[in-house]
Amino acid sequence: MKFGHFDDAAKEYVITSPKTPLPWINYLGCEDFFSLVSNTCGGYSFYKDAKLLRLTRYRYNNIPYDSNGHYYYIKDGDTIWNPGWMPAKTELDSYQCRHGLGYSVFEGSKNQLSAELTMFVPMGNTCEINKLTLTNHGSEHKEISVFSYVEFCLWNAMDDMTNFQRNFSTGEVEIHGSALYHKTEYRERRNHYAVYAVNTQLAGFDTDRESFLGAYGENSAPEVVINGTSKNSVASGWSPIGSHHIKVSLAPGESKSFVFVLGYVENPVAEKWDGPAENGCINRKPAEELLKRFDTTEKADAALAELKEYWNNLLNHFTVSSSEEKLDRMVNIWHQYQCMVTFNMSRSASYFESGIGRGMGFRDSCQDLLGFVHLIPDRARQRILDIASTQFVDGSAYHQYQPLTKKGNADIGSGFNDDPLWLIAGTAAYIKETGDYSILDEITPYDNDESKSTDFMEHLRRSFNYTRTHLGPHGLPLIGRADWNDCLNLNCFSEEPGESFQTFGPSEGPNAESVFIAGMFVKYGKDYVEICKHKGLEEEAKEAEEAIVSMEKTVLDAGWDGEWFLRAYDHYKQKIGSKECDDGKIFIEPQGFCVMAEIGLKEGNCLQAMQSVEKYLDTKYGIVLLQPPYHKYHVELGEISSYPPGYKENAGIFCHNNPWISIAETVVGRGDRAWQVYTRTCPAYIEDISEIHRTEPYVYSQMIAGKDAPNFGEAKNSWLTGTAAWTFLDVSQYILGIRPDYDGLVIDPCIPSTLSGFTAKRDFRGVTYHIQVKNPNGVQKGVKVLTVDGAIADGNMIPFDPSKKEVTVEVIMG
After folding, report:
1. In the predicted structure, residue 395 carries a pLDDT above the cut 60
2. Helices (H) and strands (E) in the chain, counts
């Protein structure tokens, strides 16, 4: 069942029913100011940091769903309705929500009156624009009222929802004409405030929530809206809001538009205020300058056109054209768009992440680089340096940091032993894309302490050596608190098996080992070797190669279970992910990474591992993380068995590592299988089961309930997931096979035998490559002939030539 459709020409997803299985959202903003908006106008806004600088309030896990947002109530006689249906929930004569790239448009109609609400964050500005257009389609004159409504957050979203003894005495506002100023905490010299304004005269306003809603009122039927008259309330203490009342007169066929602006404002230098600051009043000058930029519909329309042009140019760096419409749709539009949103947000703010707890992840942000580095390499470079600055001198790292302060999160700390190797992965992706080795010379601090700084190359060296020197009894890498799977905590142990278990920190001597990290060490260790060679560090490269070869042998000796790769060893040297286990016999993670690292490729281990994944882990909705699920709680394994069977890490379909298997299938040359794995979790290919899948049909989700769950096929945690980056890497670099390398562009498709070919355009280091791939014999992998600008090339790598601006490539598979 579908609740909308793709409009590829407009680059929009068109939602035709407000009653989607879950709220289907979009992200507005691509720089510093962001808003989340659902298909019924739910959501919230923040500046840079969703925890510390939250402008508007949102209540998670609320009843009814998604009942806080930026709303416009239309009172037409006795009828009250909203363009996005919520929160009044009046049945509309027509409804449509169009989620585009950085903007959303809501079109509703009732009683021959239509409303079109366009929401976006303009480039280069710290505000959200809401343009509301009302049109009278009837034959009689209409006198209507419009009431806007936002509920302000008291900036720190955590404090806002917990510290009521203080917060219920802090609300402050100012009203100047049609601009409502939320200045709570401004008197604390925090030097910022919010403004909510409209470009027309007001019939009234409200800034106090209880006055607007009524005592014990609710936003589905605010008292002010029902009565049709604002109270001109001024919040003092309690809960500040912003509501404008506009009276609109419309002749038959007439339209009128209004531009609302919700903005974040700060004064650059508090000591040099040039506006009225006495008696606690705010300096309005910077706000007035902001509002002036959008005080007409023409200015707002121009800003929207600029935003659309930005996204069109950005997504034009990589495009594909094939007989697979859904493939083209995802690669050209939605997939790259999601990668950019995930770059901006990491895992911090979605409808499943509150924006309060996680901040930016070390591992997460490094992986996200894989999906967006070709779009914004300059910002990718800075992100890498920011991430490295949270590293410790021994090569380990804070697991998370706050985006506003860029300081490591001490509450979470370190000890996730896969983290150091992800820095090598992200850096390698950046250098392959750009050819920029100068990043290795950047002086970069440890733990954000400038007194403890080295060049960036030393950061990579310590990352590599951290894994190399932290090995367990079998010679495999120590897992620490956890590796990629944060719920597999194997350093829970006591002195004697059978006693009550305790959890010890990674520095206290636990012996649990990770085959997954071993696969990472081999795969990204090879990148470290290449970087060393490019730096002229031949001896270091040789030593690293020896360590990698040794680890490969260790994995085959101690990490192979006969049909698949083991997952790990616990503190007592007991196997995890083995046929010897009752539950959790086989895990997805080491199968993907050890095969991507080509461990045992010649010996046949890689193909056998892929066959085992297909035999034991495959389902119609994707590959589950493990089988069989854990049916009882195992304290010695940590959190993984705390989930019911089929959910999250306990045998859920963790979409993040499905592309690892798809990539691994291209390593063994099985294009049909790689394609099957790709399409089973690809949004465009599962749009028709939206009533089962439930999350947005235009972006990836983190998790889908596995076959052991009652709700098999139901997705959760959409938008902010490493699935976006990894699947784009899979489809662009391994299935389509257009892969940047240190010295040029590799063309190595591994496609389904049913695909006769495709064309692609790829910008690479300032050169545009026009690529045509032909598959006349229906093979799955293999380049028979590669022609570059009419000349037959040797091999399938096109050396980078900066003297060219356009390159024509033809590939004959065979």
Report:
1. yes
2. 20, 44
Q: What is the pTM of this model?
A: 0.95
Tokens at residue 621, please? 């909705």
Give the C-alpha distances (Å, rounded to integers) separating 97 from 70, 72, 147, 459.
15, 15, 20, 47
How confident is the prediction for the chain on average, in pLDDT? 94
Q: How far apart are CA 213 and CA 218, in angstroms?
A: 6
Reported in sequence order, the residue ranges of 156-239 that DSSP labels E, i.e. its strands, are 173-176, 179-182, 192-198, 204-208
Annotated catalytic sites, by residue?
486
Q: Are 230 and 223 in contact (CB under 8 A)?
A: no
Residues 602, 165: Cα–Cα separation, whole Å? 67
pLDDT band with cut points at 50, 70 and 90 for residue 730: very high
Q: How confident is the model at residue 478 (pLDDT cuts 50, 70, 90)?
A: very high
Using the structure block, give the residue that is written with the tokens 């390499």. 377
Return the number of other C-beta atoms located less than 10 Å from residue 689's C-beta. 15
Q: What residues pair up with 260 in beta bridges, in sequence order?
A: 130, 198
Distance CA 32, CA 124 (A): 9
CB distance 494 to 576 below 8 Å: no
Helix (H) or strand (E) holding 100: none
Short-list 344, 459, 326, CA closest to 390: 459
> What value does the mean pLDDT take over residues 656-661?
97
Q: Kindly report the CA angle at 704 between 703 and 705, in degrees rounded to 5?
A: 120
Distances (CA, A) of 69 to 44, 55, 100, 408, 690: 6, 11, 19, 31, 24
pLDDT at 438: 98
CA distance 674 to 356: 37
- Answer yes or no: are the C-beta atoms of 421 and 480 closer than 8 Å: no
User: How far is the C-alpha of 103 from the C-alpha of 26, rounded, in Å?
Assistant: 8
Exposure letters 773-797 (e unless 16+ CB within 10 A, then b): bbbeeebbbbbeebebeeeebeebb
Contacts of 337 (CB under 8 A, 6+ apart): 101, 311, 315
